[in-house]
Amino acid sequence: MGASGFLGGTLYKELHRYYDTYGTYHTGKIYSDNQHFIHFDVTQNSIYEVLNQVRPTVVISALRGDFEGQVEAHEDLCDFALRTGIFVIYLSSANVFDAFTNYPSYEFDKTLSDSKYGKLKIRCENYFLNFLPETQYAIIRLPMVFGANSPRVREIKNALLLHAQIEVFPHLIMNTTTDKKLGQQIHYIINRKLSGIFHLGSNDLIHHQEFIQEIVRKINLNIKPQYKMVYTSNFDRYLAVLPKDNKLPQHLAITNEEVLAESQVF
Q1: I need a labelling partner for 203 at 20 to 30 A (CA). Which of 26, 27, 115, 261 fits?
Q2: What is the pTM of this model?
Q3: Across the strands, what pairs with 24?
C-alpha cells in the first residue's frame, strides 16, 4: 500500500526480485501499464477490493493521503488480517511520541502525541496492537528518513538553489535513517518472520541543526545557506526512536554518519 511514494517505492524495488510483489499507486501514468501496480484512492476506494484481488500473504502499509481515509483503510486491513491470518507491516513514525520531549523513546514506551500526524499514526497502530496477535504484525517506527533521492534532501537542495531559507530546529535531538537501510531491514523482517514493534532509527543521536548543516555541506553547491532557526522550546527536546528490546543484527544497524554519507547528492 503506497508503492508510488518514496518509501513504498524503495520497498517495492527491494522486494520485487525476491517475492511476487504488487503495489498500489494513487497518481502517475508510469504505473498504469504495469500489471503489478493497482490504482487505489484512499478517499474513494475500499482496500478490500485490492486485498481480494491480490490475495496477499504479507501487506506492507506505506500509505499516505487523507487522514480519515487512512484510518478507514487500516481498520479494514486489520479486519481482513484477522479473518485471513495474513501478516501486516505498518510503517509508523517517531511522532507517536512527540508529546514526550525529555528522553528518546523505546519500543514499549507509552505513545502520546500532540500533533495530528502523530495521533493518526497512534490510531492506526492501535488497530493492529489491540486486535491482532503479535505474530501477525510488525509495527515499524521511523525517525526522519534521508538518502540521496529523499524528498528531504531534494527540498534542501532546492532551497539552496532558490536562495530560500532552510528550517532548522536547534533544540531538537533526533536520530535518522535512509530508505535503502529501511528496505534491507524490512526484507530481513519478512525473511526471518519477525514480529512485534521495531524502532528502526540510527543507534546514535544528533541535533537537527547540526545534521542539516552537514547535509548542506554534502550537497556542496558552494551557495551560502540561509537558515531559519525554529525554537519550539527553550530546552533540548527529543524526537528519537531507539531499539532496546527488539534489535536487528548489527549489520542492519546504521549511524547518523552513515546516513549523511548515503545522502550525498552527486
Answers
A1: 115
A2: 0.95
A3: 38
- Joined together, the cell numbers standing for residue 114 give 500532540
Helix (H) or strand (E) segment spanning residue 87 = strand 87-93
Task: Centre a 10 Å sphere on the Cβ of residue 209 and count the other Cβ atoms it contains.
Answer: 17
Residue partners of 205: CB distance under 8 A and separation at least 6: 104, 173, 174, 175, 238, 240, 256
In terms of Cα–Cα distance, which of 118, 46, 60, 64 is closest to 90?
A: 60
The residue length of the chain stands at 266
Q: In what order do the strands lie in the sheet with 206-207?
A: 206-207, 172-174, 237-239
182 with 232: CB under 8 angstroms?
no
- Other Cβ atoms less than 10 A from the Cβ of 114: the count is 11
Model pLDDT, residue 251: 97
Three-class SS state of 165: strand
Q: What is the pLDDT of residue 228?
A: 97
CA–CA distance, 106 with 119 (Å, rounded to integer): 18
**Would you report the helix, strand and coil content of the chain in percent, each value rounded to 5?**
40, 20, 40
Q: How far apart are CA 259 and CA 146, in angstroms?
A: 7
Kindly give the parts of the chain with pLDDT less than 70.
28-33, 266
pLDDT, position 28: 65
- Residue 92 pairs in a beta bridge with 141
172: cell is: 531538537
Pinpoint the alpha helices (H) of the chain: 6-15, 47-54, 67-84, 116-131, 151-161, 179-191, 208-219, 256-262
